[in-house]
Every structure is written in structure tokens, then in C-alpha cells.
Amino acid sequence: MDELKALSKAAFDWLVKFPAEYWSKSHFRTYVKCDMLTNNMCESLNKTILPARDKPIITMLELIRCLLMRRIHTRRDKMKKWPHKVCPKVFKKIEHRKVLAGALIVEWSGGPKYQVKGPGEQFVVNLEQSMCECRKWQLGGIPCKHAIASIHYMGGMSIDTFVDKMLLTKTYFKAYNNLINPINGEMMWPRTDYPAPVPPSYTRQPGRPRKVRIKDPFEKEDNSTRTTLGKTGAVMTCGHCGQPGHNQRSCHRHLPPKQKPAPKPRGRPRKNPQISAAATPITTSISTSTSARGAVPFSSSSTRPTPSTPYTTHAPLQRNVGRKSSTPSTQASQASTACTSNARKRGRPPKKA
After folding, report:
1. CA dist., res. 143 & res. 136, Å (int)
2. Which of the ends of the chain has fewer CB neighbours closer than 10 A, N or C?
3. 302 touches 283 (CB < 8 A)
4. Contacts of 1 (CB under 8 A, 6+ apart)
5. Cα(78)–Cα(69) distance, rounded to whole angstroms?
6. Half-sphere exposure of 191 (CA within 13 A, CB side)
């Protein structure tokens, strides 16, 4: 208390207003067998019935009843598989205190009392009265490390026999021995002449209805004492592009702007007037076979030769047979005339007058 007073005079004045048996383990009653400073059973109940709190009265009671039926059944069947005489959490505490008891020294000269000495501490243990001067055994009902060291010193005794009867498995079964009988649905319930219950008048408050209770200031999380690393100051990295400063959801907002393609010219592309028909490389071949209509089939293929390659014709036109070959420009014009005449001959012949 002197340390608390030196640390905060206001906290000391506030604490001394309450009896010491409410906040100090040195003044707790020992018949409760609970060493917890606060009992949060009401908080556990509030969290358990949270889904049923906003339902109508009959629906809420039915949900709670079915919840209790399932809880009693599952807890009772789970404990049937436990092989030890004490409950699982009690067994875990005993195993941890066994390890701590290995560093203690026990002195005994006779009688039920033992002197147990450890690093910076020394207490007296009375096995017959289940007492230790550290008060942990009396408050929790589980032998402390000093009592376990004394039991091991005597030998031949089980630690489970020194555990309080309230923490045994047989007592646990008594707590879950009651049954909740099933009932029929609402259609099978008896009818009465009383008026049907109506819901109470309710004025809806603005905002979303609150389900979670309002925590006290001392229950709120303190970032200075948290053991996990927060995200405050952390640099976010995108998993899509690997750039810092954003995530995958907002990645499209940080992409560089797309380059617009060059606008296409409108209308039909113009022909280059500098290229003349004489400069167009043409390779022409005409067969002398005659079709059923008397037309001469024509096939042409155009290739672009290199500037060093001269323009040539593989076969002379039919009208130039026996004549001297003319210049390449003359041959190209003659081939174009022949193509036009052949295209006219392929069509339907004109009707006779």
C-alpha cells in the first residue's frame, strides 16, 4: 500500500474506501475455493445469449433452453472420457506446480507441519489441515508448490487426495446431472382464455442497435501493453504490382495512364499520283486455250522486283504474235487492255435485237 500511495495518491484514496476483502487476496474468504479477483460469469452468460437477446420473449426463451440442453449434454459426455480424478484445468495446474516444487527444500522433524524453503521465501505447510502460509492452497483448493514438495518428501501419497472435493470430477458430474426435458412445439401448447401477450411499446433509437455491452475504461485495450505488433506505421505493399502505398483492391487507381492511340485519318486513303502504271511491275501469262464460250482464260500475278531487275513479260500477247517486241511500257498497257476485254467476255452475252 505504501508503494501504491507513493505512485498515485488519488488511487490510494479511492481504494481505501472499499473493504480489503473485496480487492486483496490476503483478506479473501477461504471457503469459496476460488482465487479469482473478479468473477466474470455474468460476462460469459451475456456473450452466450447474445444471438437470442434481440428476439421476442418466447423465441428468446426457447433459444436459451435449447442452448442449455446442448451444453449439459456435451459437457457431461466430454467429462466421461477424462481418466483422472480431478478436472482437466486443475490437473494442468498441478503438473505445472510439480515442476516448480523441484527447486524447493523441505525440512521436517515430525508432526504434520513441514518447513519449505525456496529462492527468497520460506513457508510452513500443514498437510493435515490442508494449509500453507502462502494462502494459495486455502484460496484455490489446489495444493501449492510448497504443499506438493511436502507431499513428495513424505512419499507414498497421491496429490489428488489433497485437492478439495469441489474440484473433483465426481462433483463436476453432480453439477451436470440435472436434465432439461424436451417439449412439443407451439401448435401442441394448451390454449387459454387469457389475452395474447403483446410486445412492450418501443421507440426505435437512431443508429444501429447495440449488441455488445459498453466496456469500462479499464477494460479497453491499452496499446502500450499489447503483445502483438500493430499495423500503425506499417507500409502497405500491393500483391499485384509489388509497389508500396496501396493494396490489390486499389491497384487500378495507381496504374500509369494509358497512352491514347494516334487518330486514324478519315475517309478513303489517297493514291500516290507519282506512281504510274508503267512503273508497276507486272508479270503476265496468257494461255491459248479456249473455254466453252470462246473466252480466253487469263491469269496474272504481280511481284515487286528490285530496282536492278528489268520489267519482262513471260509470254507475248496474242495480237503481237509475229511482230517485234515493243518497250516494257507498251507491253504493260497491252496486258491491261487484254484483261479488260477478257473480263467483259466472261459476263452474260448481250441480247440480240
Report:
1. 8
2. C
3. yes
4. 12
5. 14
6. 2
